[in-house]
Amino acid sequence: MCGNVWEWCADLIPQTDKPGIYKAPVRGGAWRYKAERCTIEWRNTGYLGGTDFTFGFRVMRPK
Questions:
Q1: What value does the CA radius of gyration of the chain take, rounded to a whole number of Å?
Q2: How do residues 30-42 score in pLDDT, each as one tens digit?
Q3: Which of 17, 37, 19 lies closest to 28, judged by CA?
Q4: Fewer CB atoms inside 10 Å of the end CB: C or N, the chain?
Q5: SS3 of 22-42
Q6: What values do phi and psi take at 6, rounded to 5?
Q7: Could you give the CA distance from residue 12 to residue 29 in angstroms, rounded to a whole number?
């Protein structure tokens, strides 16, 4: 399910210009973006601890 909200990924990207600050990749697009961005292949980044009404998460459980 893509295009509902950006989903946080587990990887961390350190910011070279801001020591101790990390960004995390998000994927999947969000409801306010064009259709071509609403795919698993489309990636972006967001600051950890930051908020945005287009960020979210998906709860998963093992079978």
A1: 13
A2: 777 777 777 777 7
A3: 37
A4: C
A5: EEEEEECCCCCCCHHHCCCCC
A6: -65, 140
A7: 19
Question: Distance (Å, rounded) from C-alpha 42 to C-alpha 6?
Answer: 10
Domain ranges, residue 13: 6-56
pLDDT of residue 14: 83
This prediction has a pTM of 0.56
CB 49 within 8 A of CB 26: no
pLDDT in tens, 1-57: 566 777 777 788 888 888 888 888 888 777 777 777 777 777 777 767 767 777 766
Q: Parallel, antiparallel, or unpaired: how do β-strands 22-27 and 6-8 relate? A: antiparallel
In a domain, 1, yes or no: no
What is the pLDDT, as a whole number, of residue 62?
Answer: 84
- Counted domains in the chain: 1
